[in-house]
From TrEMBL:
This is GntR family transcriptional regulator. It comes from Tsukamurella asaccharolytica. PANTHER family: GLUCONATE OPERON TRANSCRIPTIONAL REPRESSOR, TRANSCRIPTIONAL REGULATOR, GNTR FAMILY. Gene3D superfamilies: GntR ligand-binding domain-like (1.20.120.530), Winged helix-like DNA-binding domain superfamily/Winged helix DNA-binding domain (1.10.10.10). One of its GO terms (molecular function) is DNA binding. Residues 10-77 form the HTH gntR-type domain. Keywords: DNA-binding, Transcription, Transcription regulation. Pfam families: FCD, GntR. The keyword Lyase does not apply. Transmembrane segments: none annotated. InterPro entries: GntR_C, TF_FadR/GntR_C, Tscrpt_reg_HTH_GntR, WH-like_DNA-bd_sf, WH_DNA-bd_sf. The keyword Iron does not apply.
């Protein structure tokens, strides 16, 4: 019995962390949010002690600003931060597609399978997670572990930005799928210049979608 209670105490902060982490990811990037410890405890179904442990962890990871004994402040992502993330993605992803073209391994990455899953996916969070899986597969195949680690470090910001992009324009999901297919076509052709162009056009279109005015009445 004691072991079971100990396990529950150990797992509770993880449950609080996952609940709050998901809340952060699904908060539109331009929106700031404050959650009290009580709201987090009620939402996650936990007491305030594991909630506080989760807040400390999220603060150390840079996702929130913790206000002791009160709650968590989730800041908006600034236009500058969004632009910086997209600039970094362009550098990393252009390098990656060039490496994949040179290696001639595009057919082994399962990219078409990921695109097919995106076609059937209606949930915006899962759609963007598949989007990241697509790009991460290319990064993994490129073989540069330093760049891959960096790419993974901006994953959560990409999800928050990506959700905003697909929610603001109804046609954006269809566009993303077409843009992914263009990237795969270039990789299969082993044409680095075409692949660079496809990646650049994809990221530019994403940035335009993020900047587009959001009308919640359409969603």
């Amino acid at each position: 019995m004691t072991s079971s209670r100990d396990d529950q105490r150990t797992l509770a902060p993880d449950r609080a962390y996952r609940w709050l982490h998901q809340t952060i990811l699904t908060t539109p990037r331009e929106q700031e949010l404050f959650l009290t410890e009580t709201e987090i405890a009620e939402g996650s179904g936990l007491s305030r002690t594991p909630v506080r442990e989760a807040l400390l962890r999220l603060e150390s990871e840079g996702f929130i600003k913790r206000i002791p004994h009160k709650g968590a402040y989730i800041p908006a992502m600034t236009d500058r931060e969004v632009a910086d993330v997209m600039d970094a993605r362009l550098v990393v992803e252009e390098h990656a597609v060039g490496r994949v073209c040179a290696a001639g391994i595009a057919g082994d990455l399962g990219l078409d399978t990921l695109i097919a899953k995106q076609v059937d996916e209606t949930d915006p969070v899962k759609f963007i997670e598949l989007d990241l899986a697509f790009h991460t597969a290319i990064l993994e195949a490129a073989g540069n572990t330093v760049l891959l680690d960096f790419y993974r470090s901006i994953r959560d910001r990409q999800i928050r930005m990506g959700i905003r992009a697909v929610m603001v324009l109804e046609q954006r999901r269809t566009q993303v799928i077409a843009e992914h297919r263009a990237i795969v076509e270039a990789l299969l052709a082993k044409d680095p210049e075409q692949a660079h162009d496809a990646v650049r056009l994809h990221l530019e279109a994403t940035l335009r979608s993020i900047a587009h005015p959001f009308n919640p009445r359409n969603h």
